[in-house]
Amino acid sequence: MTAPSTHLWFKSSCSGGSGTECVECAQGEKCLLVRDAKQDHGPVMTIGIQAWRSFTASLSQ
Q1: Can you tell me whether residue 19 is helix, strand or coil?
Q2: I need a labelling partner for 31 at 20 to 30 A (CA). Which of 8, 18, 23, 25 fits?
Q3: Secondary structure (3-state) at 12
Q4: How far is CA 29 from CA 19, 36, 49, 51, in A?
Q5: What is the domain partition of the chain in residue ranges?
């Protein structure tokens, strides 16, 4: 999947801001989109919302 131009992409608040950010995310319909921040027209990984919630919940345990 290539990056849809209609999504609002954001970088993590933990990113350094010096051009070294690794990924950008955007919220899709019932999914989260993830792409390489340095390749804004490159491939996009789609992650289901429930899978993302499970993943982030496991980080705080």
Answers
A1: coil
A2: 18
A3: coil
A4: 28, 20, 9, 14
A5: 1-12+21-61
pTM for this model (two decimals): 0.71
Question: CB of 35 within 8 A of CB of 46?
Answer: no
pLDDT per residue as tens digits for the range 5-44:
688 998 876 666 666 668 889 998 889 999 888 887 889 9
**Cα(55)–Cα(61) distance, rounded to whole angstroms?**
11
Amino acid, single-letter form, for residue 32: L
* CA neighbor of 29 nearest in space, from 48, 12, 2, 44: 48
Helix (H, G, I), strand (E, B) or coil at 53: helix
Strand, coil or helix: 6: coil
